[in-house]
Structures are given as C-alpha cells and as structure tokens.
Known about the structure:
Elements: H1 3-14, H2 30-36, H3 45-71
Helix pairs in contact: 2-3
Amino acid sequence: MDTYxxxxxxxxxxxxxxxxxxxYGQMLSVERMMEWFGxxxxxxxxxxxxxxxxxxxxxxxxxxxxxxxxxNGFS
Length: 75
C-alpha cells in the first residue's frame, strides 16, 4: 500500500474522533472497526492487512491514554 494512501485512511479514521465502541462502552475489535468504517469493500487484501495493523496500534494507544487519564483523575 502506498504510504500516502495509508496515511489518508488513518486520517479518515481519526477524523471521527475517538474510536467507536459497542453499547457497553467497550472498544470494537479491529475486524468490527474495519466493517464500521467500510474499509473491506474498497481495499485489497494486502492493504487491509496494513490498515488492520494501524487500527490495532490506534486501539492500543487510545486504551493507554484512557488508562493514564483514569490513573491521574482526568476521566
């Protein structure tokens, strides 16, 4: 996948703000997020794999920030 295309996909996802959660406030899985953002229909298999990696990293980072906020009383 072209790095610019990957950057644009990640920027598109980030434009929504926080990552989507289920009805219980739990972060969606990478697979469900791929469906949520409608990426499976428009990317090749290798592109999907790269986006999945980026989404997993984004989820990890967002969960970490939420933990830091709770620990520091900012929630």
